[in-house]
Design brief:
The protein is mostly helical. Helices cover 65% and strands 0% of the residues.
């Protein structure tokens, strides 16, 4: 597990150690697994659990909020870059990642705990949206804009609404209705169904 660099500018000092990065993130996860809430955690406690000094943590993250964003990211698969060859295939790639995230949340008590606690902290969730979710959203928008430019998708549609049409069904099953199945092939079914309705007509 390695931390990402989105969490803020590093302070001057020695080069970062991947081992220290992983130890700090794993320490935070271990404390949460043991019952600590994100609100109860402090940089001092995480550093002590990781066996490093507090300054070592602050050389990597600007504070607990930035660290928690990378803790959350460490539990997820990395975002694949759409290949850019087929808009349909790119959309399937992005929705399939959403499907796998939904399955991971269902199968991981730790991931459910972290997501629930982050949702409860509006400031932390807003930061996560800014640093992580917004990048995913923009990736989807890039694919949709490319589809419009190529004439594969109608160009008169609102981009935000169009994005919701593709992601809404998957989010509904993965988050709002967790008892519903997330079978293989669901991403393809959603993409093909929505594309049929938003393609330009002769």
């Amino acid at each position: 597990m390695t931390a990402s660099g989105c969490a803020g500018a590093r302070l001057p000092g020695r080069p970062r150690s991947a081992a220290a990065d992983a130890a700090i993130i794993e320490a935070a996860l271990r404390l949460i697994e043991e019952g600590a809430t994100i609100g109860e955690l402090s940089i001092e406690r995480i550093a002590r659990e990781a066996g490093v000094g507090k300054a070592t943590v602050y050389r990597r993250w600007s504070g607990k909020e930035a660290l928690m964003i990378d803790v959350m990211r460490s539990l997820e698969e990395p975002n694949p870059r759409p290949a850019g060859v087929s808009v349909r295939d790119d959309l399937v790639t992005l929705l399939e990642l959403m499907r796998r995230r939904g399955l991971a949340k269902r199968n991981s008590a730790l991931l459910r705990t972290v997501i629930t606690q982050m949702h409860a902290n509006q400031e932390l969730w807003r930061a996560y949206d800014t640093h992580v979710i917004a990048a995913r959203r923009e990736m989807l928008h890039e694919v949709l804009r490319r589809g419009m430019a190529r004439g594969e998708i109608r160009g008169d549609l609102d981009l935000e609404l169009l994005a919701d049409l593709f992601t809404g069904p998957m989010l509904s099953r993965a988050i709002l209705h967790e008892w519903k199945a997330l079978p293989e092939g669901l991403a393809e079914t959603i993409v093909d169904t929505v594309l049929e309705g938003v393609r330009p007509r002769p």
